[in-house]
Amino acid sequence: MIRTFHAIAAIGILLSPSCSGESPEEPKWRTLEHANGTILVEYPDGWQVERKAHFVLIQLPGGEEAITLSAFTQPGSTLEEFSKARFSVEEEIYRPLGEPKMIETEKWSGITLVSQGVYPGESEETTRYMFCVCKPSVCASMTVYASPERFSRQEPLYDQVFRSLDFQVQQ
What we know:
Number of domains: 1
CATH topology: Protein Transport Mog1p, Chain A
CATH class: Alpha Beta
Distance between the termini: 41 Å
Mean pLDDT: 81
Number of strands: 12
């Protein structure tokens, strides 16, 4: 089962194909674009994208887990404030497996946190992997809910999707 959370800003999408690499053996990737062009994220071709009321669901084939993408208008918010607020969602269920970790790209700094817990009404433990990043006035979070075994196998792929996030400067 995929759990989702309510965000405060709706996000729309446009899809356009893109190729992520030079080699023909590499998978094809698609680009998910925020409706006003503020946020772009790449994901492997074959994954399903579904727009919800307040977030986008990027579902892996087989439907066992998905990445949720939420965008927030947060003028003046820092990455630390935003990530603390996002990580506190369902904190009574998901206990952190360590400290939040900074990740850096040439374009932004972000914070990730891995947590685990048993969602009410379920009997199996779930790993929650959450990523937060901010630019002036816009913040984004991406979250994966997966079984611990599947998470450990797919973590490099989730990281690749998270690291593909890009903020587009509006002229």
